[in-house]
Amino acid sequence: MNAARIDLPRPLRLSELSERHGGVVDEPARDLEIRAIAAIESAAEGSLAPLTSGRYVAIAVQTQAVLLVDAALADRCPFGRRWVHRHASWALAGLLTDAFGDGWERVDEDARVIENGARVSERACVAKDATVGPFAVVFGGAVIGSGTVVEPHAVVYPRVRIGERVRIGASSVIGRPGFGWATGPDGSVRRIPQLGGVVVEDDVEIGPLATVDAGTLAPTVLSRGVRLDAHVHVGHNVEIGAGVVVAAQSGFAGSVRVGPGVLVGGQVGVADHVRIGERARLAAKAGVIGDVEPGATVAGYPAVDRIRWLRGIARILRPRGK
Questions:
Q1: Torsion of CA 236, 241, 245, 246, to 10 degrees
Q2: How far apart (Å, rounded) are the C-alpha atoms in residues 130 and 126?
Q3: d(CA 246, CA 220)
Q4: In terms of Cα–Cα distance, which of 215, 238, 217 is closest to 160?
Q5: HSE-up of 50 (CA within 13 Å, CB side)?
Q6: Does domain 5-100 fall into CATH 3.40.50.300?
């Protein structure tokens, strides 16, 4: 497994996948072998890349990978390398579950309980000078770097790589499977396994009761020097750039990209797949449902230029007759 690709236990023909999970495969692609599932930005020949958002169509047109395409986007992708499905996310969930299970990990039987009541797996890699606080849990496969502090009752899941001099706040949860669900042909709901883990780079601080979800295929990333306040939620596949500061109770839905140096006020909500440009400012309680240009300052819901929002509020609050 690498940062944006998950190798399958064995190669599978595309015709096998469509027979099991439904959908229609382009005839020239039926005998193609799929060796890995990959995020579309880095997918190559021999990989299957899910395409469920129109934002990525331009990349999809250029890739040599086979595309698992939502039927609503099929006409925008060239014929010949498509697996078209009316419920593409549901098919992806089934494929990942068949190959890797549901993505959940149980507390390891080999975990040792250290003096302060923390539970640390023998398969975790924890630097000698890192600190694991009372009753914290560190799963097997987690990596915790030098000088890092995991405060009391925090949980660090598998596939989490934490750098040096990081502080994980009390009762925070890092790397839990993300909130990904897909609806099938019969209306049933299926969890999408989240297998990409989390990368926390050096000198990051995560406040108490924060949550950072594991990515689906690629990791969720907190870049160097990020500061998260208490009760911040970072959804699966999010990438937060270097030096970003986020105030309390803000949340980022799946696959958001936040550029370096962004400041985020308290109780901000950012919708899935949104791009926030470098050094933008998001005012407190903003509801961001579209991309924000670098250096812009936005406010309100839906978030717009802050001056425009203030003028709109002034008109609403202006006394009648004036």
A1: -20
A2: 7
A3: 16
A4: 215
A5: 23
A6: no
**CATH number for the domain running over 112-309:** 2.160.10.10
What gap in Å lies between CA 17 and CA 68, rounded to an integer? 10
Do the two domains 5-100 and 112-309 of this chain adopt the same fold? no
User: What one-letter code names the amino acid at 224?
Assistant: R
The Cα-based distances of 299 to 230, 233, 238, 283, 290 in angstroms read 21, 20, 21, 5, 12
Backbone phi, psi, residue 275, to 5°: -115, 125
Structure tokens at 216: 């689906």
Per-residue pLDDT of 158-170, as tens digits, reads 999 999 999 999 9
Contact 303, 288 (CB under 8 A): yes
Indicate which residues carry an active-site annotation.
Answer: 236
What share of the chain has pLDDT > 70, as a percent? 96
CB 50 within 8 A of CB 34: no
pTM reported for the whole predicted model: 0.90
Degrees to nearest 5, angle at CA 214 with 209 and 217:
165
